[in-house]
Model the fold of this input.
Amino acid sequence: MLHSTAIVFTSFAYLGLLFAIAYYADKRADAGRSIIASPYIYSLSLAVYATAWTFYGSVGRAASDGVGFLPIYIGPTLMIALWWVVMRKILRISKQNRITSLADFIASRYGKSALLGGLVTVIAVIGILPYISLQLKAVSNSFTILVHYPEILMPTRVGEAPIREDTALWVAMILAAFTIVFGTRHLDAAEHHQGMVAAIAFESLVKLVAFLAVGAFVTFGIYDGFGDLFARAAAVPKLHAMMSPLEGVAGGYASWVWLTILSMMAIMFLPRQFQVAVIENVDEKHLNKAIWLFPVYMLAINVFVLPIAFGGLLRFPDGSVDADTFVLTLPMVEKHEWLALLVFIGGLSAATGMVIVETIALSTMVCNDLLMPVLLRLRSLRLNERRDLTRLLLGIRRSAIVLILLLGYLYFKLAGEAYALVSIGLISFAAVAQFAPSVLGGIFWKGGARLGALSGLTAGFAVWSYTLLLPALARSGWLPTHLLEQGPLGIELLRPLQLFGLSGLDQITHAMIWSMIANIGAYVAVSLSVSQSADEHRQASLFVDVFKQTGEVGGARFWRGTASVPDLYSLLARFLGVAAADAAFAEYASAKMLRWPDDPLVADAELVHYVEVQLAGAIGAASARVMVASVVKEEALTIGEVREILDEASQVVVYSHKLEQKSRELEAATAELREANDRLTELDRLKDDFISTVTHELRTPLTSIRAFTEILLDDPEVEVEQRKKFLGIITKEAERLTRLINQVLDLAKIESGKADWVESDVDMKEVISDTLAAMDQLLKEKDIDIQARLPEQVSVVTADLDRMIQVMLNLLSNAVKFCDSTNGWVEIALAERDGCLRIDVRDNGRGISPEDHEAIFSKFHQVGDTLIDKPHGSGLGLHISRQIVEHYGGRMWVESSLGSGARFSFTLPTGARA
Amino acid sequence: MSDFASRGQRFVALCMLGLLLFNYPILALFNVPGTVFGVPVLYAYIFVVWAVLIALMAFVAESDR
Done:
């Protein structure tokens, strides 16, 4: 025996369990360990599609026209096949634009039109209210029936219960509490309600298990499997026709097709479906599993619908029991009270799941897209200046939830008895199907315009109201019924149920045909005939080309506050400088055929966006992102806050610039250091080379001096002639040593720049004559013919006379040294040309091979094999001479080839020293 | 052709197939008296096609290609 206390207690226990699950999921989410981040939970949450209407109503419809209920689940299956194309795109768009509801989506697509968002919200609320009241009705009815166990009593015959015992009201209040607690616990930037989703997924499991249990009980408990059940039903003449129910029914196939299309739209655009599928989606990848798991769920929950319907029709052949209640009454009449209780809980879960999600979705829409745009526009409220609108927003949403549930309850009380469950649900389906052209057109057709969407929605909604809502009101007794029978003002053509004479169709098909013609027609026609604003245009390409965009979307920003042109201008000037800000504003104005700063600009979203883009170009897109995130929390940003955000960002930018500069400086310093280090290493190597060479050069004469002195010291018997010869060699080697040391010191001085240069006007003619005079003795000894070809007069050069003589001596002695030993001659030539003196010293010696031409000028280079030939000089003379000549801005080189003598030449610039 | 594009086309093809099979005139072919394993032909047809369609969707959705 089921007592009402037991039923109430079980119900409360079940709802308490829901609270616990939602609470646990929310706690987990707060701790960062979400339990809903799973494709299975996502698929189960999508099953909020199956409401009390599915749970009780499917059997009701199946009992009247067989498979007629199936398009409501086959349609979504077909639509879900398209989800890979459609839903993935909607998901991506919604995540990029931080969409908070279906109304937000449509408004955002058409240039963030507040009017459009409001219209969508109004349509959704009006269209869905009957659907919510339907859930309350289902719970209330099932409770009433269950309470009278073991009697089978239809609620309509029970009469009014006192308000205190009105189940629907109690359920509405508990659901309002649940929705407020878990739907508006806090404002989430992404509008995720993890606790709610977890509870919904659980409810989906409960209703599936309950329905499968009762289905299995009827099919295998009461009857002996499907075959037995269908065979018995076929034996009843009245039911036999239902075995091929599409035959002969007027508009049977048309109904089937339109119901399929209607359900395809419903699975996308019912606010609760959009909420769980899009807004609550945490990962796009969950689609992959949901695409087949959710259809499997729908298939499973429908398998036993027909058996239960036939079972019910066989069990209650007199029609005393409403087919909508077969799911509950069959276990009751078979005295399975616990199964009946389970069914009741399953129906409760189906109803509550729908109501919770639907009210959250609707309250978000009412708050964000209906009330807030109006409130923000009311300047007297000064909302723009308030920093924290969170409490206000939550307050509005909570009120909206309570209001929606109360309206749903009222509708149930006043009009709920006029229709069977299925009809009420389909009226809601037809209402949300009006969103299809605007949404689907909006994501695939850039041409869809704001005015087009407004016209389409308005036209579609108007036709829906006329063909579905009006008759519903008339049947509830609120409007005269002759309106339906004769048409308004007696015009038959305008009868709401046979508009323009279209008859022979069921009400829903009739309404769908006319409303879709009006909706799509107006949407396309108006879109094609108006031009889009820049804002619409940008949003259109943002939505349609969502997969072509990479990274952060520049234009994705929500601006619901107000701004002033001077503020924006000064903001820009602060970061770009006054000149650049002026230029930017002038460019913006000229695009609008205005002149800056003479014509007034409007500080609309476009200008704000323009300024934002300009700023982003200078300081990066980070601040733009911050703005978007803040606005999604519905805080109207003031310019001051924008500045704060930008200040922070710009400080970061400044720091990073400084760091970059420092790092560049460091790099440069490092490069310099490396260069210096290389130079030092090279110098070190040169020094080592130099020392080893000098040491070697010094050792040669020292060795010979030491050798001869040792001979003289050891052997006193050496003949005088011999001794004289040895002493001569020693003297000569000592002289060479002295000369070498002098030259090394000289070179060191020149190279370190410490040499003393005693400068005077030097006549090179005199230098040559003096040198020749000094060498006269040597020349005579060697019997060398000297030819000097000197001009009458040459310009003087400013130079150190002794150094010049040193150079000449060096060249001449070299020439004498290397010229032909038997028939030697040396030729000296002096010439003046182009402000330069040129001196050539030519000999007829053995010559120098071209590869040695440069080498002979380097330090310690001796022509020939030093191991065989006795060295003829220090190897420093030519090097020093070239250093001297180059010191005075001249050049020294040699022209020669082996066997044909050599000509050493050097130039000296006349006049001032270079 | 990219993986995503080809998968999208397969899904669209499945949807088309479904629309065809759950529509006049194919549906009418099965709208006849008689039973299959005791289940009326129309009911059996709808549920079998539905199940096969879901299986194909699962295959396309879960295949790595």
